[in-house]
Structure formats: C-alpha cells, structure tokens
C-alpha cells in the first residue's frame, strides 16, 4: 500500500501579491505541469511524483 502525502499551504505571487490555496499531493505517478498566476508569473512547476491543485484565496 502506498501512502500519499498531502500538504496544504498558501502561496503568494511575488509579482502581484495574489494568494492561492495550494494542495500538494505526493503520489507515485508521473504528473507534469505548471501553474501560472493570473498575472502570468509562474508560481509552480513540477515533473513527476507530485501533483498540485491551486484555488484562488480571497
Ligand atoms: Zn501574480
């Protein structure tokens, strides 16, 4: 049985200051992706072993 680690935190864009609720999942799959803030600044990039979800924080 695999144990998946989930981490939640708030990330703030260092360009425009917008905040996002981030959930990071550590999982044994090869997910690849990136997340850009609405202003276009890249907040996260990943390649394998993790996946993320981003939701806007008010
Ligand atoms: Zn931004």
Q: Brief description of this entry?
A:
By secondary structure, the chain is mainly β. Helices cover 0% and strands 59% of the residues. The chain has a three-stranded antiparallel beta sheet with strand order 1-2-5, with no helix packed on it. A two-stranded antiparallel ribbon has the order 3-4.
Q: What portion of the residues fall into strands of 2 or more residues?
A: over 45%
Q: How many helical elements?
A: 0
Largest sheet: 3 strands, antiparallel
**Order of the strands making up the biggest sheet:** 1-2-5
Order of helices and strands: EEEEE
Oligomer: single chain
Shape, please?
flat
The figure for the number of domains is 1
Helical proportion?
under 10%
Low confidence ranges: none
Please tell me the overall pLDDT: 92
- What is the number of strand segments? 5
Summarize this structure as a short list of keywords or feature phrases:
58 residues, mainly beta, three-stranded antiparallel sheet, two-stranded antiparallel sheet, flat, binds zinc ion
Write a structural description.
With 58 residues, this protein is mainly beta. It is built from no helices and 5 strands. The strands form 2 sheets. The protein has a 3-stranded antiparallel beta sheet, with no helix packed on it. Strand 3 and strand 4 (42-47) form a beta hairpin. The model has no long low-confidence stretch (mean pLDDT 92). The structure holds zinc ion.
Strand and helix map with partners:
Elements: E1 5-12, E2 19-26, E3 32-36, E4 42-47, E5 50-56
Antiparallel strand pairs: 1-2, 2-5, 3-4
The structure holds zinc ion (ZN).
């Amino acid at each position: 049985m695999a144990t998946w680690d989930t981490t939640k935190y708030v990330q703030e864009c260092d360009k425009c200051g917008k905040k996002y609720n981030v959930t990071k999942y550590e999982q044994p799959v090869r997910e690849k992706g990136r997340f850009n803030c609405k202003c276009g600044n890249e907040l996260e990039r990943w390649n394998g072993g993790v996946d993320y979800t981003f939701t806007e924080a008010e």
